[in-house]
Design brief:
Layout lengths: L17 E11 L3 E4 L7 E15 L2 E6 L2 E5 L6 E18 L9 E4 L4 H15 L3 H23 L3 H15 L6 H8 L3 H11 L4 H19 L4 H7 L5 H12 L3 H6 L1
Antiparallel strand pairs: 1-6, 2-6, 3-4, 3-5, 3-6, 5-7
Helix pairs in contact: 1-2, 3-4, 3-5
Length: 261
């Protein structure tokens, strides 16, 4: 049995938005648009998937290439956009959102891939089917993915990425993983790995692995009919006695009492 899960530990505000329209264009050299001002605080998400384009708004000019992303709030301003060269492929979303955490009228660059394209296709398909609420949720997913990627690109922290890589390996190989294996997989020494975990997790790698095992043990005890011995064996403990002793030390009750409660 394989289980991977995560729970909200700190509440954050979510994006509240309402989609208005979606365009997916593969424009040729003749394409050019002089756009009148919006009559509201409508926002625009522009994602370039191929070719080159040009956009002018509020005295700013953007020469756009594959992977460029713009979030615009034109307001009461005319704006203009056109193809540069032979073709310009892009997604254009118009939506309403009172609050937004992304800096407006600034160009960002990401690596386009199938995932983002699929999310955009889902959005336009839902809107065609008259499911505007679902389409808005799908667009929220696109924006969340973009915010995540842009945030990582702008605030890249190699040490933190190394920690995340170590975390991922621990979760994937939880029953059998060792500190030495994690150090080897991340290309660090065990001393450097300890320092990394103390900085980002507040504990040693050994303690972190044990905490993850016990969290998974709680999940299995609560949500499956597996015996305590089976849970112990599945999580790689040397014996049921060892598992029960560690569980009681850390959780405060034996596995059997915890399960009953």
């Amino acid at each position: 049995m394989f289980v991977d899960f995560s729970e909200v530990r700190q509440k954050e505000e979510s994006l509240a938005l309402k989609i208005d329209c979606v365009y997916h264009l593969e424009a040729d050299a003749s394409y050019q648009v002089y756009h009148k001002p919006f009559l509201s605080e409508k926002k625009v998400l522009l994602m370039v998937t191929g070719g080159n384009g040009f956009l002018s708004m509020k005295g700013k000019e953007f020469e756009l290439k594959q992977g460029d992303v713009l979030l615009l709030c034109p307001g009461e301003n005319d704006f203009f956009y056109r193809t540069i060269g032979e073709r310009w492929d892009f997604w254009w979303f118009e939506f309403y959102s009172e609050d937004f955490l992304w800096e407006m009228d600034k160009c960002f660059h990401i690596k386009p891939d199938f995932l983002l394209g699929s999310q955009c296709e889902t959005c336009i398909t839902l809107l065609k089917q008259g499911k505007a609420g679902y389409a808005s949720s799908a667009l929220g997913g696109v924006l969340a993915e973009l915010l995540y990627r842009i945030g990582r690109a702008e605030n890249r922290d190699e040490k933190k990425e190394l920690f995340y890589k170590a975390q991922q390996m621990i979760h994937q190989k939880l029953p059998i993983v060792t500190v030495a294996q994690v150090a080897a997989a991340t290309g660090t020494g065990e001393r450097e790995l300890r320092s990394l975990f103390w900085e980002y997790a507040g504990c040693s790698p050994k303690k972190y692995i044990m905490c993850e095992k016990l969290e998974m043990a709680c999940f299995l005890l609560k949500n499956t009919s597996k015996s305590i011995g089976e849970v112990s064996e599945e999580l790689g403990f040397s014996s049921q006695f060892h598992f029960s002793r560690v569980f009681k030390e850390c959780v405060g009750n034996s596995p059997s009492i915890w399960r009953r409660k």
